Amino acid sequence: MKLPKTHTVVVPLCFLVAGFGLSGVSASAQFYQPTAELTPTIEQRAIRPGQTVILVLRVELPENIHLQSDKPRDPYVIPTLLTFTLPEGVTVEEIAYPESTDFLLEDWDEPLAVFEHEFTIEVRLALDQDLSPGEVVVPGSFLYQACDNRICFPPKTAAVEWRMDVEAALTPRAEVSTVTEGKVP
Question: Does CATH place domain 33-166 in 2.20.130.10?
Answer without folding.
Answer: no
